[in-house]
Design brief:
single chain; 178 residues; mainly beta; eleven-stranded mixed β-sheet; 1 helix; 43% strand
Length: 178
């Protein structure tokens, strides 16, 4: 394995494994901790790629509250989701599911645990709460909310552009209305 002499031959000159990764935590004031990762990788697709890129939630372990991501055409909950690096842009939307069995008043917190990659470090990361109609920048602070018991698969989204979800207010001229 080691050779004395002139050994200057390198076969790997560049980092061909570019990746963009986002880790999101769910915590609560009564001890809940759950984590989700979404990774944009060169060889992954936006569909289900098997356990090499996409990791399903282990349902044999009971948790009181959890967050997870979805893959179109698949009913499973994912704790790690690999997505195509080519699909990452500022208009990307990552649907996030949330479930809780806690029936006492609880403050939940969604926060960024870590980001990796040029896109993730240079762009803002927003959580959209469709139930409360909030858009919150996770790079500035954590997002706190309360919830009833249940499964909420359409409540939260992660986006990178807050304006992508806004709707311009229409202005009406009262003189033009009939």
């Amino acid at each position: 394995m080691r050779v004395t002499g002139n050994n200057d031959q390198f076969f790997r000159n560049s980092n061909s494994n570019q990746k963009e990764v986002l880790w999101v935590n769910l915590t609560s004031d009564n001890g809940v901790f759950n984590q989700l990762a979404v990774a944009y990788l060169q060889n992954s697709t936006d569909g289900f790629d098997g356990s090499f890129y996409d990791v399903k939630r282990n349902k044999s372990i009971s948790t009181f509250s959890k967050i997870y991501s979805f893959i179109d055409g698949n009913d499973d909950e994912f704790v790690i989701q690999g997505r195509s690096l080519n699909s990452l842009n500022s208009d990307e939307i990552i649907p996030i599911g949330f479930n809780t069995d806690i029936n006492e008043p609880t403050i939940f917190t969604i926060s960024l645990a870590q980001v990796e990659g040029t896109f993730m470090t240079s762009n803002d990361v927003y959580v959209v709460d469709k139930l409360l109609n909030n858009i919150h920048n996770l790079k500035l602070s954590d997002y706190n909310f309360t919830s009833e018991v249940g499964t909420f698969n359409e409540r939260f989204e992660i986006v990178f552009n807050a304006n992508a979800l806004s709707i311009d207010d229409n202005s009406f001229d009262p003189n033009e209305l009939t």
